[in-house]
């Protein structure tokens, strides 16, 4: 009984959504929805891509302590 009371709150808020714009009426009756995230134009801080960021950080760490960024 105690286990059921402990686990039950975990399932209460599992599917809470907040509609910001538009309508979800087109989703009526759909039981499964496949979502894909793409990161084509993502920037890392001031850098336009991840490779530039990694290169700069590797240089900075190696100046402080050689071999640290390996």
Walk me through what this model shows:
The chain is mainly α and about 70 residues long. The chain is about 35% helix and about 0% strand. The longest helix has 15 residues.
Q: Helices and strands, in N-to-C order?
A: HH
Number of helices: 2
* End-to-end separation: 51 Å
Stretches where pLDDT is under 50 for at least 5 consecutive residues are none
Beta-strand content estimate: under 5%
Structure summary, number of beta strands? 0
Radius of gyration, rounded? 23 Å
Largest sheet: none
Mean pLDDT: 80
Q: Please state the structural category.
A: mainly alpha
Shape: rod-shaped
Helix content: 25-40%
Give a nutshell description of this structure.
This protein is mainly α.
Keywords:
mainly alpha; 70 residues; 37% helix
């Amino acid at each position: 009984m105690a286990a059921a009371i402990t686990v039950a709150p975990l399932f209460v808020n599992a599917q809470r959504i907040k509609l910001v714009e538009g309508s979800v009426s087109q989703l009526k009756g759909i039981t499964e929805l496949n979502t894909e995230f793409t990161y084509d134009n993502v920037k890392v801080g001031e850098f336009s891509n991840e490779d530039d960021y990694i290169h700069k950080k590797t240089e900075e760490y190696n100046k402080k302590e050689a071999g640290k960024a390996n």
